[in-house]
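for the recovery benchmark. tokens below, seq after
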């Protein structure tokens, strides 16, 4: 399912955040952009195919896509970047009580049906 302009903008914003946090080079940015777009497309397709999915079901689906992205990023991130990637996706955000993926909607569950 193709991404809407709004979803593409979300991916671009996520990519900017990751690029800044991880100090990505242009090649790494291009690779990550593709993986983030694929993840967002898969989550959107899951939502369409399962309109009554519970939040728990969505969490499972997103976790699977997040794991698939990680399998890909280990191929091109440096060890330091990978460590920061894992940290960004697993640590609670200060003052919000939410985990890191909430900053990155392509790989986080959101209630925007």
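predicted aa per position
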């Amino acid at each position: 399912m193709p991404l809407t302009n709004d979803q593409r903008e979300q991916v671009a914003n996520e990519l900017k955040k990751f690029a800044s946090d991880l100090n990505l080079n242009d090649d790494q940015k291009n690779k990550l952009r593709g993986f983030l777009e694929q993840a967002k497309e898969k989550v959107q397709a899951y939502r369409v195919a399962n309109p009554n999915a519970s939040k728990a079901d969505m969490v499972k689906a997103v976790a699977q896509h997040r794991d698939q992205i990680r399998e890909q990023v280990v191929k091109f991130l440096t060890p330091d970047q990978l460590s920061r990637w894992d940290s960004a996706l697993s640590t609670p955000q200060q003052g919000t009580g939410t985990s890191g993926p909430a900053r990155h909607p392509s790989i986080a569950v959101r209630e925007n049906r």
